[in-house]
Write the C-alpha cells for this entry.
Amino acid sequence: LNAMDLSIRQAARETGLSNDTLRYYERIGLLGPVARNNGGQRRYRDTDIARLRFVKRAQAMDFSLEEIGQLLKLRDRRGDVRADARGMAERKLTAIRQRIESLSHLHDELSQLVSECRSSTDDCPIIAHMDNRRTPAGEPR
C-alpha cells in the first residue's frame, strides 16, 4: 500500500496522531478536505501526510493551532515568506524565554519551600504558603 491512499487508521499510525485528531484537523481547516473512496472513507495522500507531519512538528515547537494555521498559509504561499515566518518564530521565542524565566522563579520558590519543610517542626511551610498564611523567608508578603 502506498502513502497515496492511506485509510484514516493507517494515516494515524503513519503520523502518530489519533483518528479523532485527523478528523478535527480537517474540520478546522488545518488539513484540506481529504479525498474519499467510493464508500465515503477518507483516503490520505502523500501531501496530506506531509501536512500532518508539519502540524505535528510545529506543535512540538509550541505553536498553537491558530499559529500553525498561519504557518501553513505561509507554507502554501508562493514567494519569500521568510520575514513573516521569522517574525512568528521570534514572537514564539520571546514567549518561551518568558516562560523559562517564570519556571525558574517557580523552581527557586519550590526549592526554598521544600528546604523549609524539611527543617520545620510545626506547620507545613508548603501548605501554609499555598494557604497564603506565609511566604518563603526573605520574600515580601
Notes: The first strand starts at residue 35 and ends at 36. The chain has six helices and two strands.
